[in-house]
């Protein structure tokens, strides 16, 4: 599970690694559910552009959600049940897939006997592209919002992520896509999506304590 991450906001890094321009909205360096951050979708209306960046709330809001607070429970989606859960199934079936640019994600490590915040990032210094879903929601006041969620998979056997989260709990990790698979994830038909829901190699990641200041 991932409830806290560092979005990619630098213009040069968004262009170099994701091929999109930086949104004008201000984005905090540490994002939590309910925060606003960039996510990348397939631009279907303009043939000359393969990708488009949008701003959305971290935590998917299905069309029937009553308020923004609903997204504080839907920031992660289990890949095993995403096609069935009411909160996510419409986005899944309608192909509303996205790539979420992240410099790092933060998870708790309990090896000391208490939760210590750890920072997980790529060893090569490149940002991560996390597989996600996005949605569109209209608030009772008529305002329209975009939102997104990160997909997760089981990580009980992952050399790094099995060290994270509370002892006795199932270990989960977000789906970190290979860079070469970003466009394929956005465009692939439903029967092929399982090909991309796989663990990212532990030897390509690094993790270290990063307590909150």
Attribute tags:
11 strands, single chain, mainly beta, hypothetical protein yedk fold, 213 residues, eleven-stranded mixed β-sheet
Q: Note the total helix count.
A: 3
Order of helices and strands: EHEEEHEEEEEEHE
Number of separate domains? 1
> Which superfamily, in CATH terms, is the homologous superfamily?
SOS response associated peptidase-like
Low-pLDDT runs of 5+ residues are none
CATH architecture: Alpha-Beta Complex
| N- to C-terminal distance | 22 Å
Oligomer: single chain
Query: Could you say what the CATH topology is called?
Result: hypothetical protein yedk fold
**Proportion of strand residues:** 25-35%
| Rounded radius of gyration (Å) | 16 Å
| Number of DSSP-assigned strands | 11
Question: Which class best fits the helix and strand makeup?
Answer: mainly beta
CATH class: Alpha Beta
Shape: globular
Largest sheet: 11 strands, mixed
Estimate percent helicity. Answer: under 10%
Describe this structure in words.
By secondary structure, the chain is mostly beta strands. The protein has three helices and eleven strands, in the order βαβββαββββββαβ. Strand 7 (128-138) and strand 8 (144-154) form a beta hairpin. The model has no long low-confidence stretch (mean pLDDT 93).
């Amino acid at each position: 599970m991932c409830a806290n991450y560092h979005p990619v906001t630098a213009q040069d890094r968004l262009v170099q690694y994701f091929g999109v321009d930086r949104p004008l909205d201000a984005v905090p360096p540490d994002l939590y559910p309910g925060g606003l951050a960039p996510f990348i979708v397939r631009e279907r209306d303009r043939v000359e552009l393969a990708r488009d960046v949008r701003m959305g709330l971290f935590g998917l809001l299905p069309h029937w959600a009553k308020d923004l607070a609903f997204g504080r429970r839907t920031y992660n989606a289990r890949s095993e049940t995403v096609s069935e859960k009411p909160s996510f199934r419409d986005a899944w079936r309608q192909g509303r897939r996205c790539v979420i640019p992240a410099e790092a994600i933060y998870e708790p490590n309990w090896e000391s006997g208490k939760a210590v915040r750890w920072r997980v990032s790529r060893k090569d210094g490149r940002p991560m592209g996390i597989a996600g879903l996005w949605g569109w929601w209209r608030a009772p006041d008529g305002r329209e919002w975009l939102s997104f969620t990160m997909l997760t998979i089981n990580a009980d056997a992952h050399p790094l992520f099995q060290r994270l989260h509370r002892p006795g709990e199932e270990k989960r990790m977000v789906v970190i896509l290979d860079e070469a698979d970003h466009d394929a994830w956005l465009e692939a038909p439903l029967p092929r999506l399982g090909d991309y829901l796989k663990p990212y190699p532990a030897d390509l990641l690094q993790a270290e304590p990063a307590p909150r200041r």
